[in-house]
C-alpha cells in the first residue's frame, strides 16, 4: 500500500474518534509477569496455574522465558563436579557461578536485557519489520494477546529494568513455600542435606556485588503467594482473583489481611529511623483493625516523636544511630581490655597496632553487629501493642499482628504475652532469634494451633493496594453492573505499542556494546 492510501485509511479510521480514543487504539494487550521465588519453592505449580487460566479464560498465548537459559547460552566454563558433590549440586552451583560471572562481565540486569531482546525480536519478526527500520514502520505493529512470564527473577536490577520498560503492565508474583517443604523438594532432586543448606543460602543472598539477591527482590512483589501442602487447593482461587484484578474483569475488594498489611505499610512511613522503616498493625480475631505502630523514639508524656513536635529528639535530628554508636563503643571497650591486659603484654612485643586491627576486624564481623538492644526507638510491634492495649484492651487476645518486617526476638516475647495468635510479615530479618529463643511458644509451622504462628504474608502487596482497589472504571452501564468478555478484555494497565519497542530497544543497548549479538 502506498503512503497516500495508507494515510487515507488511517484518516477514515480516525473519523468521529476523540484524541483519547486514538491513543487507546495504540495500546497493546500484551501482559508481562515476573516470578521471584526462593529455591525449592513450588513456583512451577503457580506458573502452570497462571498459564492455564490465561489460556482458557482470557484466550492468551503464554510464553515462559526461563532466564537461566541465557546463563547456559553464555557460560564460559563447563560443569566440573568436585569430590563428594552430587551432580545435581554441581549443576546448580555452576549455574549460580556462571550467572555471577555474566553479571560481572556485562551488568546486573543482563538476563532481563536478553529476555527483553527476545520479546522485541519476536514482535518485529511477526510484523515483518527489520530492527533498523523499527522507527519507520512502528505503526505496522499489531497488538498481540500474549503474556510473557519471566522465570525467574533473582536480582533486583533485573526487576527494576523490567518495571522501567513495561511499567504498570508488569506484575511480579513473589512465591514462597515453607523451608521444610523447600528442602524436601530439593532432596527429591538428589541433593544431600548439607548441599541443600549451601544452595538455599547462595540462592537467597550472595555476599557480592554481582550475586543473586532473592531476599531483596522478593519483597518488591505485587502479589505474594504462599504455597504449601496445606493450602495448595486454594491456589486456583488465588490466581483467579489476582487475574481479575489485573484485567479489572470483576469487582474485587480487599481481604481483611490485605487491609491490615496496607495499614502496617502506611504506618511505616511515619518512622524516621536511620536503619529501616517498619510498620505494624493489629486486628482482633474477626479481622477488625485495633491499632497501628511504627518504629521511632518515644517522647515524654507518651507516644512517639512526630514531625509537628518542636522538641524533636529523633535520630534524624541528632544525626547518628545510637545502636551503631553503642556497638562501636562496645567493640572499642573489648579491644582496649585485650590490648592493655597485663597477661598479654609479653606476647604482643610492640605489635599493639597490628593485633588491635586484627581483633577489631574479627569483632566487627562477629555477632556483635547483630545486637539491637541499644536502639532508642520503640519497635513498630511494641508501639502497636501498647497503643492497642490502651485503646482496645482484651480485644487483642487471639488477634493477628501484621508487620512489614519479621519481628525481632525482643518483640517476640511481648507478642506472645499479649495473646496474639498469628503474625504475618513480608521482609525477612536475619538478626531475629525469636524461634531460637521462644520455640516453646512461637513457630513457623502454619499447621500448629498450640503456638503463635509466624507466616509470610499472602495477598496483594501494599505497594499495589490503591491501584487495584481504588477505582473500578466503567463498571456501571444503564444502572446495571457491566459485564465483560474475558476473551477480549484488555489488562487494566496497558502500554502503547508505539512506545514499547522504543523502550525495549533502549534497554538492550549494553548487549550490543558488549558483543552479545
UniProtKB/TrEMBL annotation:
Gene Ontology terms, MF aspect: dCMP deaminase activity; zinc ion binding
Pfam families in alphabetical order: dCMP_cyt_deam_1
PROSITE patterns xrefs: CYT_DCMP_DEAMINASES_1, CYT_DCMP_DEAMINASES_2
The UniProt record lists the keyword Metal-binding: yes
Top-rank taxon, per record: Bacteria
GO cellular component: cytoplasm
The UniProt record lists the keyword Zinc: yes
Family: Belongs to the cytidine and deoxycytidylate deaminase family.
Name of the featured protein: Deoxycytidylate deaminase
Native source organism of the sequence: Chryseobacterium gambrini
Taxonomic path: Bacteria, Pseudomonadati, Bacteroidota, Flavobacteriia, Flavobacteriales
